[in-house]
Amino acid sequence: MAKSTGLSWTTFSVGDASNAATDIRNDCTDIQISTPRAVQDVTGLDKAANERLLVLADYSVTVNGVFNPAGAHLIFSTVASTSVNRAVLLTTNGKNLNMGATGAGNGAVIFTDYQVTRAATGELTTSAPGQLANGAVPTWS
Hints:
mainly beta; 5-stranded antiparallel β-sheet; 1 helix; 11 strands; 43% strand; elongated
């Protein structure tokens, strides 16, 4: 496969308070996804450089967008009042990252905030950061 742009998102869905996935691509201006691995330092006294082992996997996402009261706002406005693990499903360039199947209780991401910003110039934007919640290892397929 050739190099690709980020212009071909075919899905970007997030679970609502009941974890029913809703496609919110149209309301999102950008997202950041991170799938880091923690490391354990196992450097012995006999070493002159660090020695490490990979340990736990992690996942985080930040969804930025334009305020849409009939769209993504319906998904993220319940972040402050519910403690629900939510599914995050995305497909880009034929590659999928599914963080939790749809259905109550099966989500893998907990959103920790929903920020709405009105800039001095009049823009009304949103941001919602989420983190891995259920121990599922993030895997691209």
